[in-house]
């Protein structure tokens, strides 16, 4: 039970061990965010008001979604195993149900976007899906009424130069996948971490800052690099000998905590660690030991490029259009859910040193697919190899839609992207400099969710 008290450190690793599932129970989860705006003037939407987020949430409740409250405010909606939640600046996120294949994932995405449009268009609201807001300044973004965000807003500036930008001006798409054992987890975590810079490059979709070019293909990715070094990044220890569940526990124990939840109250942890909590020395709950639910909450406030829970979260991609929301999970499923493809990908990434992986991560927000890995090998060259591995993995799964297409059909958008060495950001930069005459106004039509 999630409310039991943690008596010893072994229970922390057991939490991850409990996430192991047989292959027959592996599922695919996706999470994707989008920015809302008032169509008339492209202004952000507040929580309340005739054109507010609350009105959209109530419209979705009319379609059968169940509300979740924090005090008097609706902060989330639930329908079966799906949820819709609010990010700090009002970004709307769908956390999808665990599904069996990419065909089902795309049906879910399409259904969600159709429902959202049916509610929002009636009140003059639109949504765009990209990695960083194209024109808003930080002080123009409203704060959503969730207690955890007030704590985070005060904490973030103490740790990095772009923590508030991350909270209020970024959107991402995540893929969540299962593992069968500790060995399987390590293999998948290493592959997904090493190839996360490639995901950044393929899905780069945030070249703008406050109405102009930012100098980056993925400004969102750069922002994450300067958010909080203690809870973000590439986790070099994952590639060390002896990596396992306990290694991740040791990392998580020493990441400062944001808060502890008791009832409806969020208690500020004042940057103390979970190790302090285990020792009964947390100032906001003196002499109290943590619950398993506290461990779950703490793990959800760690933001590495790939995050371990009772599943593995791939977190490196900018939000994008419908095809990207399907291509992202397809890319990772093809690599990680077919044994032959996983072994091939693991051999490939084993040739990279940790310094090379960190260098890719540092340079890819600026150069995207043109990032040089060596003097004669670019990120685009790597993409060609990895996409072929992923495609084979999806074909090996032999899961077809009603028209006879296997899941590899969902890679087509990024396969064409690789052939042209052109990410969504590259296209947007070209449009901005030419057809759009240096204005981002058209983005609110071109990148509609």
Secondary structure: helix percent? 40-55%
Query: In this structure, how is the largest beta sheet organized?
Result: 9 strands, antiparallel
- The top-level CATH class is Alpha Beta
Distance between the termini: 39 Å
Number of strands: 17
Q: Tell me the CATH topology.
A: Creatine Kinase, Chain A, domain 2
What structural category do the secondary elements indicate?
A: alpha+beta
Ranges where pLDDT stays below 50 over 5 or more residues in a row are none
The tally of domains stands at: 1
Count of DSSP-assigned helices: 18
CATH architecture: 2-Layer Sandwich
Mean pLDDT: 96
Query: What percent of residues are in strands?
Result: 15-25%
Outline type: globular
Defining traits:
nine-stranded antiparallel β-sheet, single chain, alpha+beta, Creatine Kinase, Chain A, domain 2, about 450 residues, two-stranded antiparallel sheet
Detailed description of the structure:
The chain has a single domain, classed as Creatine Kinase, Chain A, domain 2 (2-Layer Sandwich), CATH 3.30.590.20. Helix content is 41%, strand content 16%. The protein contains 18 helices and 17 strands. Strands 1, 2, 3, 4, 5, 6, 7, 14 and 15 form a nine-stranded antiparallel β-sheet that branches. A two-stranded antiparallel sheet has the order 8-9. Helix 15 (379-397) runs antiparallel to helix 16 (412-420). It is globular and about 65 Å long. The model has no long low-confidence stretch (mean pLDDT 96).
